[in-house]
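> tool_call: predict_assembly(chains=two)
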Amino acid sequence: MAMTEKEFLKQARPLAEALLDFGKTEGAKHGVSDVRVAISAGTKQSNSVEKGEVVNVVSGTSFEVTVSLYAARGASISFTKNVRDEAQLKQAMLQNMDALKVVPGGSKKGLLEPDKVFKGPKADLDMYDHTPPTQAELIKYAKDVEAAARAEKGTKAVRSVSVSANDGHYLVLATNGLDISNSSTMYSAGAAVIAEDANGMQIGGESSFARHFNDMAKPTALGAAAGKDAVSKLSPTLPNTGEMPIVLDRDAAEAFFSSVFSAIDGTAIYRGTSFMKDKLGKQVMNSEITIEDDPTIPRGASSGQVDGAGLEMRKVTFVKDGVLEAFNLTLFESRQLGMEPTGREGGETNVRILPGKVSPDELIKDIKEGVYINGFNGGTVDVNNGQHSRQAHGFLIKDGKVTDIAVAGFVVSGNLKDMFMKAQIANDTPSLPSTRHGLAAPTTRIDGLTIAGK
Amino acid sequence: MAKKSPSTDPFFKNSDLTLEKTKEIVKEGLTGADYGEFYQEITESEALVYDKGEFTTISVGNSKSGFGFRVGKEEKVGYSFSDIFNEAALKGAISETRQVLDGKPVTAKPVSTPLPDVTAELKNPMDPLTLEQKMKKIEEIEKYVRSLDPDIVNVTVQYSSAFKAVHIITADGQSMVDNRPMSTLSISLSIKDKDGKIENGYALAGGREDDCRNVFDTAVYEASAKKALKIGKTLLIAEEAPAGVMDVVLNHGWPAVILHEAIGHGLEGDFNRRNISVYSGKIGQKIAGDEVTVVDQGDMPGERGSLGFDDEGTPTKENVLIEKGVLKGYMQDRQNAQLMGVEPTGNGRRQTYAHTPMPRMTNTYFRAGPHKPEDIIASVKDGIYIEDMGGGQVDITSGKFNMNATLAYRIRNGKLCEPLKGVTLVGDGLTVIKSITMVGNDLKIEKSAGMCGKNGQSVVVSCGQPTVRVSNMTVGGSKKQAPKAP
């Protein structure tokens, strides 16, 4: 079922070259100065099991072509079609060439300067699993996950267990000399488990993902963790309403630190709608905190060598010792701000908060009353005014220790500006690539937040 | 009143298959299945974004089409989809999906639901205006928004239209076509005060529209612009919300998203078939007061969540879920209806041809009650009035939900007082529905907003309600002195 890089390129390269050529020759008659052709394709296979049997098998293919046309006066237009037929695509290009004539100029949208385009050599980030599992192996994995989840004491049912195998491919050619392609595989598995006691039902879960199937979490461990998670949430209570310290586990910390990237997003910065807009070179977080983003990690969930604009992607330290070192910019955003682009056309990649100095236990030990948070659900995180108001769940902290008293349904409120400055971190940042975390963050403590509970 | 069938020709334009041949192959492919169908889709779309005085996105001529074939037997479902529609691809999909049947003995049950006549006329909402006309209109709208207040610092106008045509062939060889046009225009702005503090305001217009001129209408965009400005200006002077347990009054219209999250999701058939919803096993029980009636209705003309038929070919209709406080039924797709021994309700929906259907909401609303909205506000001594809501989430197993308000006011002694920001409402569905103490007489269905996510699939929905009072909700805010719980 899966497609190899060779099979993809055999189909995509002649089509992309034909469209690029057409864009150049025909475009010249219509005032088109630059053309970019991107083709992506993929296959998907997913299997769900319920009570030891396969219940849902989904498979399919996708293929998509995006053609962008640019005029030298600073105007652009694009379309995306899931069509493979060259004649149909050329027809659509002709329509957009015509439409481009009425698009006003003066925009900073436009291709990267040819001398900045990455020319190689191509690095091997080991993103494609050349020994993929069979469907039978995927199904066995899912069945093992489900069996382990159901074996946990206190579980009532499994809401869903599924495992999926995807492969994705892309090729981008443009008139500025851009010629990049990549193929990758991605395996993922998840279990959602229901536990029940006299006080009602709770749902828990666990998931794993990897570029190579053999790197995935062991299915029995994944299933057991999902079951334990559900059981640990039974009979939740509410914490007291008031001001108290919170400690985020590594999952909740991942959600918290991802807000940094909303706040340093190029569009929010040039629009002036982030409280970080004037903070470059200034202290924005506790000085213990350094945030690195490294796209060059082999088998990383978000690794890549070249971004969609054609810039080489390098490691960027966005925050160093609490000081904001860089914004997260696409090419267009960097032009709007008059700054150098950061090679992040597709946003941040493999982010890691460098470990702090103390253990999680030491971080917690002086908290008399607080909440240990395992995750947030929805809520408001506004990087303009700093509003942070999110529902959370976890366990009570009493006399310096995390108890087994589950809490849920309360709201944690504060201002992100203060939360960034007050965040203290432990030394347990997971390493990357991870089969569990897209963003690797350590256990994090924040004092003085408002809890709305009972 | 069967309408004339529109042609299925567009679906066979670049294929070696004909309708008759496809029907034959589909019929054979569904032999021995309890349920399943051939589903095909053509989507065309365009989007224009005008931001800080320039068009940052001009994406026109987009299209996406493909088909999916599904075969189901009891709990088991095989599904295969492809962007290529020809005989080889269809037969390949069928042989792949039938593997899930494992050669088990055939116990096929006939589809008992009457199927609709083909209805929709295919009409593309983006056709009536040229690209140039749309761009001129957008520039005009941006100028108008800026003219409203000199303190406006950013204006973004986003327009998008989509034409979605759905073709379904069912096991008994019926072929039907539905037209699902959408056109929307949103205005976002940022406004500053004299200290340089910035707040954002946003408003959205349009919805299920088969003519994009309706979203460029002067009265429509002027109303949107004024609404966005009001939100931005109000947030500039708004205070931090208190934290604690309070009485809450929800405005009519979009704040019904709380109904969608806190109650609607828990009434979807798949969760209840597995007995993992807080509403499972409660049919016939009184779970709310007499004023509470909840309906999901997919056949309301012109509403956002409406469909000619659902994505399994079942006609949509009015489904009363809770009547005068008594739980009446769940929303079903074919699979869960069959497994629970009830009829499908027209709620089997999917995001695209690359997704399998499941029970989903359409237009979900509280029916009107007896109270005047002003009397409801006047009844609250100390509480919060939610004028407009953002979005929210629910955990259907525990029933716990959270919602965030975009515009709220404090109510003191029955009067609206200072505006508040950062209001989050949390609770659990069963408790909240019991705590609805007053239902207004001013039902309003939201036309423009509503995207619902479930198991990674997103579908267009709507919701509505009259003004509603909920007692003792948990409000999360960051104001330092938390009020005492009543």
